[in-house]
Amino acid sequence: MKNKNYLIRKSYVYIIILMGSYLKAQTLNISGTNWAVAVPAITEAGTNYTGTYDNPNQLTLSGLLPGSILSLLATNGARISMHYVPITWNSNLHLYAKRSGGTTKINGLCVLCTATINGGNVNFIEIPQATSATLSTINFSGLLGVDNSVNYSAINVQLEIRGVSVTIPAAAYSTQVVFTIGPN
Hints:
The chain is an alpha+beta fold. The protein has helices at residues 2-22, 67-73, and strands at 27-31, 51-54, 59-66, 78-88, 94-100, 103-118, 125-127, 133-164, 174-183. It has 2 helices and 9 strands; from the N terminus they run H-E-E-E-H-E-E-E-E-E-E. Strands 1, 2, 3, 4, 5, 6, 7, 8 and 9 form a 9-stranded antiparallel beta sheet that branches.
């Protein structure tokens, strides 16, 4: 009985090692600069002067979905999600993002394959703190062949901040926006 349990555990280890060598990680690269919002001095009378500010310098997302991930995702595709991690933040300030552009390139031998980037390009989507929101999806279809992967690039992301008001104490606020890619 002891030897049988040992063999079963040993088999699990080999399976995990084989799976680890088969699966390659997907990547998500982000390029761009930090955004410092310049809020002009509020000189108007009133109790709630509200402002909305857009980031003129967009972020750019790019990366790779290897064939091992494509076969796991099947028809569901991949999801680019986002959330923010407050550093010094006021909960009355709200962050939003909107996608524009984006290209895909299928690598390897693939029969009737397509890869498309969908969603996130019409309206700004609020970026939550505690959970993730979907910015867009990358959908893949076709019959996987040899050495397949999908490169995606030039996904431009514009950020927006809403809720700037005289009722929020004047301070230097900062937060970090986190983008991830995974199964849809």
